[in-house]
Amino acid sequence: MRNAYILGLLMLVAVLGLGCKRDLKNPDEEERYTGPTIENHDVTTLYSDSAKVLIKLQAPVQQEFEGGDGVFPKGFYIEFYDEQGKLESTLKGNYGRQETRKSLYYARGNVVVNNLKKNEKLETEELYWNRNKGRIYTDKFVKVTSPEEVITGVGLTANQDMSRYSIKKVTGKFNFSEE
């Protein structure tokens, strides 16, 4: 009786062991998830120095990825303030990307930078903003409009507030003077 009980128990373990067989897969060969790890809505990010807000970034959606980089699939809007807290300029685009380690932002689609102090507007389809250096640049077509003139060209480097800028290849300059 004891032998029959042990034999029955061994057969049960053998049947259950065969039925629970799993294929072990190499995790390095598995398809990895590459999508966002975090998605935030109605985002406002403030960058300050000595308790003074210098930059305000707003976006309807921000997606962050594993390495810390992010995208703004529905665009973003940035305000730049001077040291007295007065709004100097704005930047907006229909799509944005952020490389955190480089403090580099990329804007694409109807990109507009407004210098409120000089009443100038920059329009382009693609623009990079280096937050650490306080610079914006592009190698695409640009149009800078002021109350006196419109300047068009290809390529631009500027301060982030558009107080000083350089257009690489000027293709047109149109003055608005009444005579």
UniProtKB/TrEMBL annotation:
InterPro entries cross-referenced by the UniProt entry: LipoPS_assembly_LptC-rel, LptC
A molecular-function term among this protein's GO annotations: lipopolysaccharide transmembrane transporter activity
Gene3D superfamilies reported in the protein's UniProt record: Lipopolysaccharide (LPS) transport protein A like domain
One Gene Ontology CC term in the entry: plasma membrane
Protein's name according to its UniProt entry: LPS export ABC transporter periplasmic protein LptC
Organism expressing this protein natively: Pontibacter mangrovi
